[in-house]
Amino acid sequence: MAGGVVEIRFPVVILGEAILTAVRAEPMPTLDGQERFAVGHQHPDALDMLADARAGEPDARRLDGVMIRFLRRDFSGRSFGLALALADKGARHAPPAAPVIATGSIAPGGRGTIEPIDAFEAKVRHILRALEQAPPATPPVFAFAKRNLDAADEATRAALTAAAQAGRIVLRPAERIDDLADLWTAAADRAPQKWSARRMALAAAGALLLVVAAGYGWSMLRAAPLRDCEAALRALDAPGAADEPAGIAAAVERCGAAARARPDSGRILFLTGQAHALNGGARLASAYWRRAALAGDPDGLAAHGRDLWLSGPGDPASMKIALGFLERAGEKGSVAAVEDMAQIHREGIGVAADPRRADDLLRRAADMRGDEE
């Protein structure tokens, strides 16, 4: 059993005041079929919620042993369920790449369905205030029930949007625990996080441009999961739509579902990276773009090459790798990749500045655009 010690924070309301506490999980040897597969939980609902959160796993993994510890015990209710489930998954599979705050209940008998919780607005205000007062080095992922977002008041939605746009938090509304499966995927599938806010904005904007401008139209592929993902992303192209958290949440949810249904589709993996980039999820975007590039998707190659360029140290060795992906993307028809190469050569980023080479690449890009027309 892989994984390690994982701590997930969650908000609770005690004596009318919202505070952040945490649940910690660490792996133990499998308990050989015994029903009590978790110990140390000291909460009457913990075992039931763990069992429901694990319901979709193979039988061989549903009895993995874990040690559970709550940092505080003077709270009531079931809103810790999502945090408990994520700590359990991370301890048994792979720890999340970023800090995680979670709130939501695991529905009894719902096989991982995430139920909304009470006092959502108050808990959000406390979380955002805590992040403003003590900004973490890495923006945390905030996982919660999508139904809470749908029912939230305008002030809460606006506050979440502003925090996400400022890069202080990554929003992950979800309907089922499996919608968050990328949080406990193997660390080898994750790209390193070195992005500044400026680079994140540039990459997200450029990534969305790839979808629209690279010539791989929205309607060319016909699988239903892909259509849902494309439609959710295309809706964000409307004026003001990219500032609406519900629309971004829908894109993350639908593209994530498509990626789980078609994990071998480079196109879907690329689009899922786009959704996470627009949601401020740099690590997740990088991971999906890398997988899309390895699958040979032209836009995935372009996005991964751009990602390596923007997030790397800019030394000759790293730029050689980035340019390799961009060149492959250009050979497969990505105009954006050729234009990126032109900028790299013009500015001398990790390579000797070569204005003539840059001009040649820009002419090549112009010819490619002409062919598209």
Topology:
Elements: E1 6-14, E2 17-28, E3 38-39, H1 46-53, E4 65-70, H2 81-92, E5 100-103, E6 105-106, E7 114-115, H3 120-133, E8 141-145, H4 146-151, H5 154-165, E9 170-174, H6 197-213, H7 224-235, H8 245-261, H9 266-278, H10 282-294, H11 298-311, H12 316-331, H13 335-347, H14 355-372
Parallel strand pairs: 3-4, 5-8, 8-9
Antiparallel strand pairs: 1-2, 2-4, 6-7
Give start-end ranges of low-pLDDT stretches.
30-36, 186-222
* Strand proportion: 5-15%
Order of helices and strands: EEEHEHEEEHEHHEHHHHHHHHH
The CATH topology of the largest domain: Ribosomal Protein S5, domain 2
Mean pLDDT: 80
CATH architecture of the largest domain: 2-Layer Sandwich
For the sheet with most strands, the description reads: 4 strands, mixed
End-to-end CA span: 53 Å
Shape: elongated
Please count the beta strands (DSSP E, at least 2 residues each): 9
CATH class of the largest domain: Alpha Beta
Q: Please count the helical segments.
A: 14
Estimate percent helicity.
Answer: 40-55%
Label the structural class: alpha/beta
Lateral arrangement of strands in the main beta sheet: 1-2-4-3
Q: If you compute it from the alpha carbons, what radius of gyration comes out, rounded to the nearest whole angstrom?
A: 22 Å
